[in-house]
Every structure is written in structure tokens, then in C-alpha cells.
TrEMBL record:
TM ranges: 56-73, 79-96, 103-125, 145-165, 177-205, 225-252
InterPro entries, alphabetized: DUF347 (IPR007136)
Keyword set, alphabetical order: Membrane, Transmembrane, Transmembrane helix
UniProt protein name: Putative membrane-anchored protein
Biological source species: Salipiger aestuarii
Length: 256
């Protein structure tokens, strides 16, 4: 590269990051999205009677359409990004449910398989881009790796959460408290003990899925099954309202 080429490359503006900054609003919406993903999947599958297969096909088709919209953007747009997070949450939940309920794969096997798939995704992402930072998701390749990783974290979180809550019979509330405690420990490790930021982020990203699902089930499931009996409709609409309000605030008052 000549000196002129170097100066021209340096003068070109850096592409905008396609994902939001990580702050309190980010984790609030993420937690609401995963909770809604759990209850919405149950509502479509059971309450509307669509069945697991039909629900999975329908939601996957919708997700592919919204991801195409997300990739067409040149910068982070709150409503587009978070719409995809909600839909990925639903599809990730259904992915695990299909393996367990339709194909008879055990929750232990699903947890191990998705852990391996996520590790492989990160390894390939690193080998291609030499970064796993969410502050530099500014090319189509990096964005593709990002969304694959997000999908796998939801599927893994679903499997791990169901494994703890159902297979080990801890129940919804105890499971939620367990995952919340682990997340708090990771946060303390990051803020006080120098835990690697990328490692801390992705571990918490995985664990917010079973945390949200545990409290979503606690609110929506009947009292006879250990829940509070609010139902999937009321629970989903409540969390959707929180998501919409927070995304609207982010759109009107952007903070980069």
C-alpha cells in the first residue's frame, strides 16, 4: 500500500456499528425479549393450536424477512434490531423444543450440542475477523456471525434453563434465582476482578435467556404447575409493552 493509499484509507469514515451499546436499557430489553420469546412460543404452539412444527416454520420465515431488513440497514436502528432479537428469541426457543419434543433429544445432549456449536461459531468468527467485539459489528460478515451466535445463545439458554428447571426439578422461582445469582457473580467479576469483557458479555447473554424464561414461566403458567397463573397472553403483552416503551425512548433519545 502506498502512502497515498494509506492516507485515503485512513480518511474514509469507519462504518457504523450495527448493534447497540451495552447499557442498562440493553439488558432490560434483552431480558424482556427472552421472557416474551418463551411465552409467545407457548401461546402460538399451545393456545392457538398451531403446533410445534407449524409455529416453527412460520416464525422462521418471519425472522428471515426481518433479518433481511436488518442487514439492509447501514447503521443501528433500534426497532429493527430489537424486533429481530425478539424473533430470534422465539425461534431459538422453538429450535430446542423441536429437538426435545419432536425428535426426542435429551436436554443434556441439547445443552452440550449447542455449547459446542456456539464455541465453534466463536472460533470461526475469530479466525475470520480476529475480533469478537460487539463494538465492531460493522460488516456483513461480522453481522452474520453475530446473529448466528445470538440464535445459538437462545437455543442453548433454553436447553440449559429447561434442564435446570425441569430435569433437576428446581422449579421456576428457584431456577430464576440461581441464574440471577450467576449473572450477578459475572458482573462483579467484570467490574471488580477484571473478567474479560467479551467473555463476560456472552456468558451473561446466554444466562439471561434461562433467567427470563424462568420468570416468564413463573408468571404465565397455571398455579397447579408452579406458576402465578397470569397466562401467556397477559404476560407476553406486558413484556411487549415494556420493550416498545424502552425502544421508543432509545429511538427518541439515542445514546452512542
Amino acid at each position: 500500500m502506498t502512502a497515498l493509499d494509506a492516507r485515503m484509507a485512513h480518511s474514509q469514515p469507519k462504518p457504523d456499528n450495527k448493534v447497540p451499546e451495552v447499557d442498562a436499557g440493553f439488558w432490560l430489553i434483552k431480558l424482556m425479549a427472552v421472557t416474551m420469546g418463551e411465552t409467545a412460543a407457548d401461546y402460538l404452539n399451545v393456545n392457538l393450536g398451531l403446533g410445534l412444527t407449524n409455529t416453527s416454520l412460520m416464525m422462521t420465515a418471519i425472522l428471515l424477512g426481518t433479518l433481511a431488513l436488518q442487514f439492509s440497514r447501514s447503521r443501528y436502528v433500534p426497532w429493527t434490531y430489537w424486533l429481530n432479537v425478539v424473533l430470534v428469541s422465539v425461534v431459538g426457543t422453538l429450535l430446542t423444543d423441536n429437538l426435545v419434543d419432536n425428535l426426542g433429544v435429551s436436554l443434556v445432549t441439547c445443552t452440550l450440542a449447542f455449547s459446542g456449536a456456539l464455541a465453534a461459531c466463536f472460533a470461526l468468527w475469530w479466525s475470520e475477523e480476529r475480533t469478537l467485539s460487539i463494538h465492531d459489528v460493522d460488516t456483513p460478515v461480522r453481522e452474520a456471525f453475530y446473529w448466528v451466535a445470538v440464535l445459538l445463545t437462545f437455543a442453548l439458554g433454553t436447553a440449559a434453563g429447561d434442564l435446570v428447571a425441569e430435569h433437576f426439578a428446581l422449579g421456576y422461582l428457584a431456577s430464576g434465582i440461581l441464574f440471577a445469582s450467576v449473572i450477578i457473580s459475572l458482573a462483579l467479576g467484570y467490574f471488580l476482578l477484571g473478567l474479560n469483557a467479551i467473555l463476560a458479555f456472552w456468558l451473561v447473554y446466554i444466562l439471561t435467556r434461562p433467567l427470563g424464561a424462568s420468570f416468564g414461566d413463573l408468571l404465565s403458567q397455571p398455579v397447579d404447575y408452579g406458576g402465578l397463573g397470569f397466562g401467556t397472553v397477559a404476560t407476553s403483552l406486558g413484556f411487549l409493552g415494556v420493550i416498545a416503551a424502552t425502544v421508543t425512548a432509545m429511538t427518541l433519545h439515542p445514546r452512542r
